[in-house]
Amino acid sequence: MFLRSLGECLEHLRARPATARERAEIDELAVALIEHRVELLPGVAQTLDTLGRRHQLRLLTKGDIDEQQRKIDASNLAHHFAGIHIVAEKRVDTYVELAATHALEPASTWMIGNSPKSDINPARRAGMNAVFIPNEHTWVLEHDEVDPADDGVLRLDAFTDLLTHF
């Protein structure tokens, strides 16, 4: 997304399409971002390995398809999931469609995430349970209130805490 935004910004400022040379220069500037390896939180791979033996796991992520797929590939975690779903936005209908398509019973399906806006609240409105694992680096536009009285939301401090509950 960064590269695309940078190219669009250049085109807007110059009031013309970027040349091939300018696009190449943008690519060079961002090479560090492109080649940046995904850094997993401690215990994520081991936790997914254990959970994957107990449950059917699916990955639902939002964003640019190519960028998200690059992150998934770099993480080496794809093999833990029965399916990977990359969507533009996570809304209530996204969760409803996912459940219907894969014959998931919403009442026994859990969304695990750090974003109240995209993970927790829409999953709850779709009838699923949710595990909220706050992260201090969650993008501010993903912040929202999580109903503290909602007993369909399990709050955990760390991803590895999932092993205690699942």
Can you offer a commentary on this structure?
The chain has eight helices and five strands; from the N terminus they run ααααβαβαβαββα. The longest helix has 13 residues, at 2-14. β1 (58-62), α5 (65-75) and β2 form a beta-alpha-beta unit. It has 166 residues and is of the alpha/beta class. The model has no long low-confidence stretch (mean pLDDT 92). The chain is elongated, with a radius of gyration of 18 Å. The protein has helices at 2-14, 20-29, 31-35, 44-54, 65-75, 92-101, 116-125, 162-165; strands spanning 58-62, 83-87, 110-113, 129-132, 153-155. α6 (92-101) crosses α7. A three-stranded parallel beta sheet has the order 3-4-5, covered by helices on one side.
Distance between the termini: 35 Å
**Main sheet attributes: strand count, strand direction, barrel closure:** 3 strands, parallel
Structural class: alpha/beta
Integer-rounded radius of gyration: 18 Å
Shape: elongated
- By DSSP (H or I, 4+ residues per run), the number of helices equals 8
String of helices and strands: HHHHEHEHEHEEH
Report strand order across the widest sheet.
3-4-5
Beta-strand share of residues: 5-15%
Give the overall pLDDT as a whole number.
92
User: What is the share of helical residues?
Assistant: 40-55%
The number of E-state strands comes to: 5
Low-confidence stretches: none
